[in-house]
Amino acid sequence: MLAIRGLRKSFGGRTVLDGFDLTVEAGEFVALLGPNGSGKSTALRCVVGLETPDAGEIEVGGTAAMVFQKIHLVGRRNALDNVCSGALGRLTLRRSLVFPHDVREEAMACLERVGLADRALDRTARLSGGQQQRVAIARALCQRADVILADEPVSALDPQAAVQVMELLQALAGEGMAVVAVLHQPELAHSYAHRIVEMRAGVAA
Ligand SMILES: Nc1ncnc2c1ncn2[C@@H]1O[C@H](COP(=O)(O)OP(=O)(O)O)[C@@H](O)[C@H]1O
Ligand SMILES: [Mg+2]
Q1: How far is 147 from 39, CA to CA, in rounded Å?
Q2: Same domain, 55 and 10
Q3: Looking at ligand 1, which residue's alpha carbon is closest to its atom 8?
Q4: Do the domain assignments include residue 70?
Q5: Pair (178, 203) in one structural domain
Q6: Which of 19, 25, 63, 110 lies 20 to 30 A from 47 at CA?
Q7: What is the spatial distance between Cα 62 and Cα 188, in angstroms, rounded to a whole number?
Q8: Ligand 1 lined by 52 (C-beta under 6 Å)
C-alpha cells in the first residue's frame, strides 16, 4: 500500500504540491490524471526519494519502484542484465560486478512474468518501445516492489503496445501490488484502473 498525506513541495518559492493526499491499497490500480505541471511527477518522485518533500507524510508498505516514460534501460546490455540491476539494492558491490546465479534466475522469472523470457539475451536497444517498457517493469519486479509508480508509462508507445502495458499493470495489481500510473488518456484510465484521481495545481481535485 501507499499513503501520501499532506504532501508539500515548492521549487524556488513556487508551490507545486499544496497538500496532496493519495492512498492506494495493495491490489489497487489508481490512474493519476491532470494537466501538465500539476505536480504528478513531483508527487511520484517524492515517494521514491528523487525529490525531498517540504512537508507531509509518505508511507510505503514495502518497496516502491518507479517506471518512466523515457525508459532508462542500458540499451547495449541485454534484457536479463537490465532486469538483474533491479536487485542491486540488495547486493554488495563486490557481488554485483557479475550478477549471481540466484539473481539471474529471479530476473528470468520476472522477464517471464512480463512475457519476454524469449528476449532475455537480446540487447535491450533492439527491442520495441513496448517491450522495453515491459523490461523496465520486470526490473521493478526484480526490485521486489510492492508499489509500482509508473510515470506516463504508455505515452511514448503505439496503441497496441500501450494496451499490453496497461494489461500488465492491471494484472500486477490483481496479484496484490499497489499500482499508480500517470496517464494522459482518460479512456485507458477508465478501461484499466480501479480508480481515477484527478490532480489540479498540486492537490487531488
Ligand atoms: N526540479 C525542479 N526544479 C524546478 N521546478 C520543477 C522541478 N521539477 C518540477 N518542477 C516544476 O514543478 C511543476 C510541476 O511539475 P511536474 O511534477 O513535473 O508536473 P506534471 O508531472 O504534472 O506535469 C512544473 O511547473 C515544473 O516545471
Ligand atoms: Mg510529469
Answers
A1: 19
A2: yes
A3: 42
A4: no
A5: yes
A6: 110
A7: 27
A8: no
